[in-house]
What we know:
By secondary structure, the protein is of the alpha+beta class. It is built from six helices and eleven strands. The protein has helices at residues 8-14, 20-23, 138-145, 148-155, 168-173, 181-221, and strands at 36-38, 43-46, 49-50, 59-63, 80-82, 90-94, 98-101, 110-112, 119-122, 126-131, 175-177.
Amino acid sequence: MRMIEIASLEFFKTGRWRVEIFTDDNSAGIGSRWPLVKIRDIAAESSTAVNPQDYEEEEFFYVGLENVESVTGDSVHLQKKKREEVKSRSKVFVKDCVLYGRLRPYLRKVFVADEACERGLCSTEFIVLKPAKDRVLPEVLRAILASEAIGKQLARLQIGAALPRVSADDFMKAAMPLPPMSIQKTMAGKLADLRKERLRLKSLLLENPAEIDRVVSDLVTA
């Protein structure tokens, strides 16, 4: 058994008493043929935040945790809001930023700002990442962070009982597999195809209740 020594001062400095916070780099259980890298080595955290009332735009996209679907990262009822509608200090994001939902990490809520939502504000419950695009593609980073394997590992680092969160510091030190860029480009293409098909099927599901109403109405009228 591997023995690890931790200075008691480190426990007192952080005020956290879970051993894995100090010993677990979250790589245990991640099986990958690609090398593991720390998130901080392939993406920078953007902590820029503003008071919405001071934001330069009158209307802007605001992304809350409720606006991001688990696993897929699809937007949910995402629309522009007026400055007065957002009451709390918010983080700024721009195109290609990856927003990681640090509250209840097991929900795996990860959003990427694309052409449909190029800039705006988001909840401070997101860790805003600016990927180093020469090392990792934004859509690939989003997909890997939202994967089951990484989600389980990051959940090990959460703290708090009622509202468990992953701290930005612990998150940035966590490890994830990094495929070579050639593989990432193939992944990005497949992910785009899956997203297109998923949105098509979702559209059909949304139409289904209305179609049922039409059928019933026709039968009753007839």
